[in-house]
Structure formats: C-alpha cells, structure tokens
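Give me the fold.
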Amino acid sequence: MEERELVLSSWGKRFVAWLIDAIIVNVAYAAIVFSVGLPVIPSFDKINSLMITSGSTLFFIYWTLLEGAEGQSVGKMLLGIKVVDMEGNDIGFVKAAIESFGKAYLLLLDVIVGMLAFGDTRQRLFNRLSRTIVIRVEPLPEESTGVRYVKE
C-alpha cells in the first residue's frame, strides 16, 4: 500500500480559521439573542452565565455538525485546512463532538496543553483525545490532465 503524506496545518492558519468561525457564530448568536428580545451585550447578572453557556453550545453544535459532515468549518474551508483522523480519513460526528468540545468549552486549556504536550503533532488536547489532526487540503488542479469535458 502506498504511504500517504499529510501536511499538518500551522497553528496560525488554525487560529485564523477559528477567528472566522467565531465571527460567523457570534453574528448568528447575536441575531438569535436579539430576535428573542434579550440584550446582545448582557449585563453581569444571572442571565450572563446562561448566555455564555448557550453561546458555547452554539459553537459546539456548529463545529460538530460541519466538521463531522465534511471535516471543515467555514473558516477551515476558506483557509484550506481540514480535520481528519490520524490516517487522513473523515472523522464523523462522534470524533467531531469530542474534538469540538475542547474548543467550544475549554479553549485556553485545550490549546495550551496541546501546544506544550503535543506540539510536534500540532494537536490540541481534545484533538489528541479524539485521535484527530488538522491538515492542509491540497487544492484541486485547475485543469485535469487527460480528461476532456464535452457539453451535452
């Protein structure tokens, strides 16, 4: 069997992808919160912890669904990176849920432990627990060699 080469994504690309996702999810979250009549910027009272938890849950659902289905959130698609298992295969929803939990609820711990303990594989703690990695996706060639397309 031919050996596959997987190019690990840089921490920088992963951060930019996360930032894009954070903008998308926060805009959606603000629209949801505003539509039900709650303040978009909460005051520091009982509702604040509920809003933080529900925001994190929205992130968890977003990443679990998109990365479980295709291995890519919108941010990852735009940056040309993808979450895969250790052999380069799609991860499915269970592994996506495990790896998404860390970045949705425990981001700082997830990243710091990952960088210190697993820096060589560029895995966050929850990537390690789910046995997933983030790789660069090779762009499709603009023109296929040896293939001719004919219109009907």
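Residues 11-136 form one domain.
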